[in-house]
Amino acid sequence: MRKKIVAGNWKMNLSLEEAQSLHSEINDALETSEFNCEVYHFVPSIYLSTLLESDQKVNVGSQNGYPAKNGAFTGEVSMSQLSGIGTKAVLIGHSERRQLFNESDILLKEKVDAALEEDLKVFFCCGETLEERESGQYKQTVIKQLKNSLFHLPSKEFAKIVIAYEPIWAIGTGKTASPEQANEMHKSIREAIEHAYTQEIAQNTSILYGGSCKPSNATELLNQSDIDGGLIGGASLKSEDFLKIIATYN
Question: CATH code at 215?
């Protein structure tokens, strides 16, 4: 059975005090309640060491990482440095990294390889623009992203990947793919994985939905047949909202 996962992506938000408070609130709540999913916080890199110190229910991951182990890459943090401080997971290929920082499929492939070499769990993001959705090219776009950056991996390594489908037109816009639209894309991703690998690997791969998921629509979205959880943006910055989404799997 594939794992259910609820992951919060804080992006470039929160002061250190706010980050510690939010992380503690979620951990404390999960200590005293039943939950049937894995929970992650993807946090700004400057908070990783602080948040990794505590004994916790919430896994802490990085929002980014650089593929080279060391060198003249001012401002970057390597996958080996992330692993060295105890980071367990890394977010790769988020639409904001692709669009704002021009990260190519080739670079993302290098990041995936470097992360897996350091035994980091990879959360790989993929998704289409509004133009690609409206032109009917959305499935081809997403599957091409997977082929270019993931499908070179041997089966044993691919088994360590979590995929997050995030329609770019539904991120930070308040728009959300309908449950049917989201599930259709998740099924297509799973079929592509089966074609590249095996049915067993496809059925065991967790595919998350990331696109304006919030308490009001979480139950309907996350209970779809091929949606295995959520990559949550804005709603992960409020403990009450994030806990309500986690409670979808209680």
Answer: 3.20.20.70
pLDDT tens-place string over residues 182-232: 999 999 999 999 999 999 999 999 999 998 899 999 999 999 999 999 999
- Binding region: 9-11, 172, 212, 233-234
Which residues are annotated as part of the binding site for substrate? Answer: 9-11, 172, 212, 233-234
- Domain count of the fold of the chain: 1
- 3 has a pLDDT exceeding 80: yes
Asked about 94 being catalytic, the answer comes back as yes
pLDDT tens for each residue of 27-43: 999 998 888 999 999 99
Active-site entry in 41, 94, 96, 186: 94
What DSSP line would sit under the chain, residue for residue? -PPPEEEEE--S---HHHHHHHHHHHHHHHHTS---SEEEEEE-GGGHHHHHTS--SSEEEES--BSSSSSS-TT--BHHHHHHTT--EEEE--HHHHHHS---HHHHHHHHHHHHHTTPEEEEEE---HHHHHTT-HHHHHHHHHHHHTTTS-HHHHTTEEEEE--GGGSSSS----HHHHHHHHHHHHHHHHHHS-HHHHHH--EEE-SS--HHHHHHHHTSTT--EEEESGGGGSHHHHHHHHGGG-
Question: Is 157 considered catalytic here?
Answer: no
Domain membership of residue 244 as a residue range: 5-249
pLDDT at 250: 84
